[in-house]
Design brief:
By secondary structure, this protein is an alpha/beta fold. The protein contains 13 helices and 13 strands. The protein binds S-adenosylmethionine (SAM). The site of S-adenosylmethionine (SAM) has 19 residues, from helix 4, strand 7 and helix 6.
């Protein structure tokens, strides 16, 4: 993420990084100088104004035209640009200094460094407490850089390789929590990145989202077939990554997220996990709404749960859907997103 005139995001979101500024109030004062007008909702943001987010602490929204990347606060890593919905996973995981966390799919490191801000916001420690995995060596370099800018190189180890092979429960017997944010279709992303991803997807998503003229129906059918095939490959990969995280003996909380709007990559991955014999044996359940940003109004699709769990009551299905969070692209002030938290008593 960064300032880009092609990016048509409704809001530019950024958060104060406590690891680089123990005195958040001093940063707030600087922000007040730059953005003198405070607005009460993100819909009210105009150039020069600022919105203090009501869901994520120390997260702010400004007008996309206001260039924040040239500001000293940004250059010094004291503020970090990150979409609001992308801040949900670390907030839901809510780790403390007692925890050891694995971020299974980390680059470029937005969520990794956000997790660090929850763990070390009140003071850095001298040992590694977060283990970040990234398969792509080039992206791992970006991750490394972001961790350095955020000021938590000592507390995070970067492991380059496939999380499902490199991270074994015997090597990490005491990990308590996971962020699992694997590759997805990116269908919730718009703006320049969305257009790039459309090109990569041969416009399949565009066809699905925007409808197609009659004469293109045949082509659309073919493209739609491609999309379905792609979603099914992605969802079985996503399932494997989360299931692997669930196999760690001391893990108590796992937050799974995507920037996809498709149920195939979201609720249905969760459903497949809940139906898996091993996952049942390990005791994993969907966390209750009260620990998953309860005030956020848009929750998971209840129909997905009702369709599969025919023996469960409507309220049981609602409870599972309530353990999920959804954000719609643009309509909710940023990218389209999905997050769910699994937890168990051990
Ligand atoms: N969590 C990141 C953030 O907030 O900045 C974004 C993660 S991005 C959606 C998914 C990342 O997972 C990509 O960088 C991809 O290279 C990496 N990845 C894909 N498969 C992986 C695997 N098996 N093990 C580790 N990383 C993987």
């Amino acid at each position: 993420t960064g300032d880009s005139s092609n990016d048509i995001t409704p809001v530019r979101w950024f958060r104060i990084n406590p690891l680089r500024c123990p005195d958040a109030s001093a940063v707030m004062k600087e922000l007040e100088k730059k953005f003198p007008q405070r607005v009460e909702s993100w819909e009210g943001i105009v150039p020069g104004s600022i919105y203090h987010d009501e869901f994520i602490p120390y997260l702010f929204g400004i007008h996309p035209q206001d260039k924040i990347t040239s500001h000293e606060l940004y250059k010094q890593g004291r503020i970090i640009i990150q979409d609001r919905a992308s801040c949900f996973p670390a907030h839901i995981l809510n780790p403390t200094l007692e925890d050891k966390i694995i971020d299974a799919c980390s680059a470029p490191g937005n969520k990794t460094t956000h997790v660090a801000s929850y763990m070390f916001g009140n003071g850095l420690v001298d040992d590694v407490r977060i283990f970040a995995f990234e398969k792509d060596p080039e992206r791992a370099k970006v991750l490394q850089k972001m961790i350095k800018v955020a000021g938590c190189s000592k507390q995070i180890s970067v492991n380059v390789g496939d999380f499902t092979k490199l991270a074994t429960p015997s090597k990490f017997p005491d990990v308590t929590g996971f962020i699992v944010d694997p590759s997805c279709s990116g269908s919730g992303i718009f703006g320049r990145k969305y257009i790039d991803s459309l090109n990569r997807q041969k416009k399949t998503q565009d066809i699905v989202d925007n409808g197609v003229p009659d004469e293109q129906e045949e082509m659309a059918e073919k493209e739609n077939g491609n999309l379905q095939e792609r979603l099914s490959k992605l969802s079985s990969f996503q399932f494997q990554v989360v299931k692997h995280a669930m196999s760690f003996p001391k893990a108590k909380r796992i937050v799974y997220s995507t920037c996809s709007i498709h149920a195939e990559e979201n609720e249905r991955v969760a459903l497949d996990l809940l139906l898996d014999e091993k996952v049942k044996q390990w005791g994993w359940k969907i966390a209750k709404r009260e620990s998953v940003i309860p005030q956020w109004p848009r929750r998971g699709f209840v129909s997905e749960f009702q369709e599969i769990f025919r023996d469960k009551t409507a309220s049981e299905c609602q409870e599972m859907a309530d353990g999920c969070i959804r954000a719609l692209p643009r309509e909710d002030g940023g990218i389209g997103f999905f997050a769910i938290c699994f937890e168990r008593d051990i």
